[in-house]
Amino acid sequence: MKKKILIIGGGLSGIYLGYLLKKEGFSIKIVEANDRIGGRIYTKNSHTTNVELGATWLWRYNPELLKVCSSLDISLFEQNMNGDALFEAMRTSAPQRFQVPKNQEISYRIVGGTFEILNKLKATFTEDELELNQKVIQIDDKETSLKVTTETSSFIADFVISTIPPQVLVNSVHFSSDLDSGFKQIANNTHTWMKDSVKFALVYKTPFWKEKGLSGVGFSNVGPFTEMYDHSDFENTHFALMGFLNSSLANETREYREEKVNEQLFKFFGEDGKKYLSYEEKIWNEDRLVNYKNDRFITPHFNNGHAIYQQEFLNGKLIVAGSETSPKYGGYMEGAIYRGNQVLEQLKNKFL
C-alpha cells in the first residue's frame, strides 16, 4: 500500500486528491509551481477584507462539493441579492434600477472565503507532503516508476497525477516518452476554466449601496465592468463589491483599467462609488500557470470531460486529472471534486 503518488498542482483538484489518497494510506507528495496553493481559488486579503479574485460561488446542484463542505464543517451563506440592481444599456444613458426576479437559482459563498476549503484540506498534510515553488519541467519514464523533474529538484514516484490544465501540461512539461498524439491534440483544444476572466474587487468602509436600497448587483453592456455583486462578508463587518471586467481590457494597464472602473462607479453610484479603500484585480490569461498563451480561440468548456481523459498514459503510470477532465461539471469546483472522487476509485481498483 505504500505506493508513492506524486500530484502535480496544488489547486483544489490536487489538494483534494492528496487528501483523499492520504486517507486511503497512499504515500503522497504534491508539488505546486506557485508560491501559494489554490490555483484558480484566490482569496486575497485587502484592507483586512477577503475578496475573491478566483472561484467564488457554489450552488445546490453541486452535490459533491456540498458534501466536502459539510464533512469539513465549512459553512455557507447566500449571495446577497436584496435591493434593486442596476443596468447600464448605453454610455449615453444613466443606469436603470430594476428588481432581480425572485425565482433565480441561489448562489452560495463560503464563510471565511473560498480558500477555507483548501485550509481545511491542507491541515492534514505534513510539511514534506506539499512543496511550493516546484515547477515541473520534465517527466521521464523509468519502466517501473516516473522521474519528475522541477526547476530545482527531482522526485521518483510509482504513479503521477497531473491536475494542471491539460493545455498547460502538454506545452510546459517535456516528456522523454512520447505522449499519445490524440491526447496532445485534445489537450491543445481543451478550454481552460477562468483563463478568459478578468476579475476585480473594491473594498469600502461602509456598504453605502444598501443605504440607497441597492443590492450591489450591476450589469453593463458597455463596460468596463460587465457584472458586479455585493461582496461583503457573512458577519457584515467588511464590505466590498466584486465582479468581472470586459476581457478586452486585459491588454491595457492596471492604471487604465482602474481609471475606467472609477468612471463607471461614479456613473452607477455617484461620489460614494469612488471612495473605495482598495482596488484589486486578477487578469487570469496573464497567469502562466493557468493559461498557455496562443492565438487560438477555444469555446468555453470545449472538450472538458473528454473521454480521452479517462485513459491512463505512460504505461499506466500517469493520470491527467483536474477540473477540465471531469465528465461532470468540467471547469468548475464541482468538477474538481467529482474528478477527484473518480480518480480515487480508479487507483483503489488498481492498487488495492
Automatic annotation (TrEMBL):
The record, for Gene3D superfamilies, names: FAD/NAD(P)-binding domain (3.50.50.60)
List, for all copies, the residue spans of the domain called Amine oxidase.
88-341
Extract the SUPFAM superfamilies matched here. FAD-linked reductases, C-terminal domain, FAD/NAD(P)-binding domain
- Please give one Pfam family short name: Amino_oxidase
* A Gene Ontology molecular function term of the record: oxidoreductase activity
Output the superkingdom of the source species: Bacteria
Family stated for the protein in its record: Belongs to the flavin monoamine oxidase family.
Specify the protein name. Answer: Amine oxidase family, flavin-containing protein
